[in-house]
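W.,

You were right to be curious about this one. When I first looked at the sequence I had no strong expectations either way, so I just let the prediction run and decided to look at it fresh. Below is the sequence, 388 residues in total, followed by the output.
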Amino acid sequence: MSTAAPKGLQDVVANESSICFIDGDKGILSYRGIDIHELAEKSSFEEITYLLWNGALPTAAELNDFSHQLAAARQIPDDVIAFLRNVPKTASPMEVLRTTVSLLSIYDADEKSTLHTANIRKSFRLTAQIAMIVAIFDRIRKGKEIVKPDTSLSHAANFLWMLNGEKPSETAIRALDVALILHADHELNASTFAARVIAATLSDLHSAITGAIGALKGPLHGGANEAVMHLLYDIDKAGEDPVEHVRKMLANKEKISGFGHRVYTTEDPRATHLRKMSEDLGKDANPKWYTMSRQIELFIKEEKKLNANVDFYSASTYTTLGIDIDLFTPIFAISRISGWCAHVIEQHDDNRLIRPRADYTGPAWPAPYVPMEQRSSQTKPYPPKPSA
């Protein structure tokens, strides 16, 4: 009899990959072997994306060409814009993003190809388009005019420009750029694994990314920073002390989002940079959200021995940048598309269908076949009744 896999496939190695290395015990995250701290301090999102797709950092000329190709891909078919205009304004941005990415495949000349060169071309387009979709839908739902992309701006700067309709400050651009770098890839997380499973069937890149967005939409993957900001808003609205509010939540056995991680047993290295960003942005704007977050973080670390993860300080960082809560997870996708594409490219370059097995826990074989006239609700051994 085979050994049962742990729940949620915890620590099960499911694939080989040269894209991302994590050591949760030592708090290490690296892209292609380069430490995330160095990349966050010295690189741009465009440079990181080149690294993820090509396996090495670019030369100055290669980065310049890559950045121009990414900027030139900021185009969305008119029919897709019309679709965004007709989507109910009450739709969640993640629903709209998931559906629009699927729709874009119809208009992509390389849609049916899984060749490396075609995947690279599609990756340029989707990376540019996902950021545009989020900004365009947000303006449409608020009754504002769509802002045309500016190809002279970086990826982060152009998103803020299209979202807000005004040229962002260098501080805001750098803050978002670093946030995009930190979220670009994280090995076989739920959405990336979903993308690889879909790609392994030799389905197309758009299908894989649509599936990845569907996985990211779940609150156990992409929604924790939204919950963190709702908590901060609730505390602020009630005029309560942050620590006392959280203390009461713990007494009521309520979950505090933004703490702990399935991989990291020490501090999430991405949280280190987001904490500093939140603090720096607060100095230029409103320090309230950083101050409250820091008080909660220190209390939870002392009380529960849990570290803040990437979601905790991204909440106050995005809010200080003037970004709505329901755009937090779409911004995650704006970054993670670079990693998703890298994994789909890697999967297609050396493909084998991903087909795991399950540890069967149902009735023992051979279970008796009960004739219709002898069946009753009492004779059904499976499935078990859900717990209250």
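Here's what jumped out at me. The beta strands are 20-23, 28-31, 34-35. And, maybe more interesting for your project: The chain has a mean pLDDT of 93.

Coffee later to discuss?

I.
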